[in-house]
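Why Lipid-A-disaccharide synthase-like uncharacterized protein? Reviewers of the renewal asked for a concrete example.
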Amino acid sequence: MSQLSNWLHSVFVQQFDVWILLGFAAQALFTMRFVVQWIASERARRSVVPAAFWTFSIVGGGLLLVYAIYRKDPVFIAGQAAGLVIYFRNVWFILLERKHARAGNVTT
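Here is what the prediction returned.
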């Protein structure tokens, strides 16, 4: 038990700095996307992916990428960078859909 306690202290207390704080904040934002999606789906009683899901994905994923780069973790960097491409692509689709919807609703 003492070894576990020492390890936890080393990981969560001794190495705590602004980068760890950024990592936790980024992870919290990234996690919020699931909370937003869950609440939207519960309200609609069906699976829903609101635009806010992609906003939290981009902000949280971007900050996690910065954190991963600082930590020099190639697995984490590759994962977050690839995810960002997907998140931005989904936002692009949402923007195009809204643009087309506005164009279709314009009366002459």
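The chain has a mean pLDDT of 92. This is the kind of structural detail the renewal will allow us to pursue systematically.
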